[in-house]
Specification:
Layout lengths: L2 E4 L7 E4 L8 H5 L8 E5 L7 H7 L7 E3 L21 E3 L7 H5 L9 E3 L10 H7 L4 E3 L22
Parallel strand pairs: 2-3, 3-4, 4-5, 5-6, 6-7
Antiparallel strand pairs: 1-2
Length: about 160
Amino acid sequence: GVIVLPVAVNSNYIGVSFVSSPAVTNEDLNLLAVLQKQLVSLKIGNTNIGDSALGIIGKCSQLIFLQLNNTKITDSGMPFLNSLQNLRSLNIVGTNISAKGIQALQKLRSLQSVYLYQSKVAAADWPGLAKLFPHTILDTGGYSLQKLMTDTVFLKAAIKK
C-alpha cells in the first residue's frame, strides 16, 4: 500500500507516500534506509507514527518535502529533523507540536514553509516564531474569506400548475 514514484523523468530521486497505509510501523519505515539518499518527498500524514519514527526519517538527508500531518509526533521528536538540511516544506497540521518543537528547527536554513494549523502552537507564540524564522512562511491556516455578492446564487422555486 506504499506508493514509491520517481519525481521526474531521468532522475533517481523518488517520493514515497503512505496515504494508503495508515497502519505504518517503525519496521516499515526502516525499509526507507536503502532509499535515504534518493528520497526527496515523504508523505506519512494520517498515520500512527510517533517520535521514534522521526529518528528514522531524520536519516533521509535529501528530504525536501515532509508531511507529518495528523500523526502522534510531539516536541520531543523534533530535534531528529535537524539533520534534514535540504528540507523546504514541513506539514505538521493537527499534531501536538508546540512553539518549543518549532524552535528546535532553527538550524534548518532551507526551510521555506511550515504548516501549523491545528497544532499546539499558541497565538501568543507567533511573533516570537516569526522572529526566529524570518525567511520561513509559518502558515497558521484557518483562513476565512470575505463573502461577496457575486458568490451568492439566487434560486427561484418552480411554480407547479
